[in-house]
Give the backbone structure.
Amino acid sequence: MCVPFKFVKTTVGFFIQGVFLLWTTFAHAVNLMGSELQLHGFLTQGVVITSDNNFLGQSNKKASTDFREIGVNASLRPTSDLQLSAGLLSHKAGGTDNGNVRLDYGLADWTISSSEQGRSGIRLGRVKNSYGLYNKTRDVAFTRPSILLPQSIYFERSRNLTLAGDGAEFYLDRNYEAGNLFVTFALGKPQIGSEASKVALVGLLPNGRFEPKIAQISQAMYEGDGGKYRLGYTVLRFDTHYSPGVRDVLQAGQLKSMVQIFSSQYNAENWSLTSEYALRPISIKNFGPNAPDSTTHGQSYYIQGSYRLAPKWEALLRYDVMYIDSEDRDGKVFAAATRRPGFTRFSKDWTTGVRFDLTPEFMLRAEYHRVDGTAYLPVQDNPDPRALERRWDMFMLLGSFRF
Amino acid sequence: MLAVFLITANSYADTQEPTMVAIAFPSTSENVISRSTLRAVFGMRLNKWPADTPIKVFVMKDDAPEHGAFSKNILQVFPHQLRLAWDRQVFSGQGQYPEQVTSTQEMLSRIASTPGAIGYIKINEVTNNVRTLQIR
């Protein structure tokens, strides 16, 4: 009894020492030709166990560790008006992402004008989308409110649609005595040419791919009273063409969407209340007889409270709801037309969680989800719709280190 | 009754939290700064002084009493929100972290020797080597 405990203690001790050594030797800032180069990164490992269904790997009644996020980034500021930054990310997420290293962002941020009243400028390159409150750093566990972001808005399933764009983002910040206004407008190509994006949009059977076209994304965010409250509005417009594969069940169709998100947050010293509401209509056209022209009215919202129990402890409670079609909330019409379960068309997720910051660099989290419906589950992890269970539970653990 | 409570709350704050002041490199062009500008500077969203000198921000550790008092009472931003704002910028390539110092002595010597530097200190520890910034 005593020996294994000692072993664990020694191993953990060595690990923490090693991590500390790594952190101090890596250092955060290096002077490079008179300007500061900052290097940062993180390593996150999650464990997922579900009562039924699979999420982030083969989690059904067993522990899946196929949830891992590793990132490194560098930034350099050669002048006070220019910052060059790049971040690499490996994101392992069950059957939807194999963890290959990708350029998460790589950009030149040029401040065109700056004064006490605010600043304006342009970011060129691969820029993370200003989409809701959390998208810009959605894969950095320390900046998320929970292990899993509310899936009604920050889909794991179709993350590439909203993740980042290759193009330009214009920004305008205004500083007022009462608060700050942040406005962005971006034009960029999403990374949706992948198999995972195709599956998220049209399923496993069609064998073609989507051609990325320029998407437009605009956001206005107001932060009042030093960030005590935040109010935001985001609009994303995208339009993409499908190139059918050989003997494809689908024809060369077109998919269009306009997502609107209304965001609000109140931050007190020890608690925060956050809610976002999204409208996600999707229209499809010319995909042929197997997918008649249609429009589905997606609708999402969540309400989330977090409480800082003590300086290192935080508790979370959230209710997160998504309907794939708000005109067929329970999926009855869908079930009658397709003979697939209606509960695949919604998900209602009660989440409770706890966060413990062991040190500023090392964080542990645990989370429990009680879910009705399977709308946010990726089809790659659940290829057989007949094997899905409507009501399921999920337990998650996460450890994250950063430097 | 309310007045008594307010006075008690006030004196509690006085005895518990150090009174802080913003300080800058001695030949900085500014003497007076607005709270909104100071928030933008410590939020790492304003990178140069009106005279075009790059701004260099120095802070203490997140859990240092000086950092807490400066954030809450002068900037009127909670320290954990400041941290989150920095994290969001750094991990999306839109900004850099301020430089962290470990002691009052280091804060004073770095501010005194770095052109464009800004930081904070307890009001009773101010020396002649730094400029005190008044809040407009």
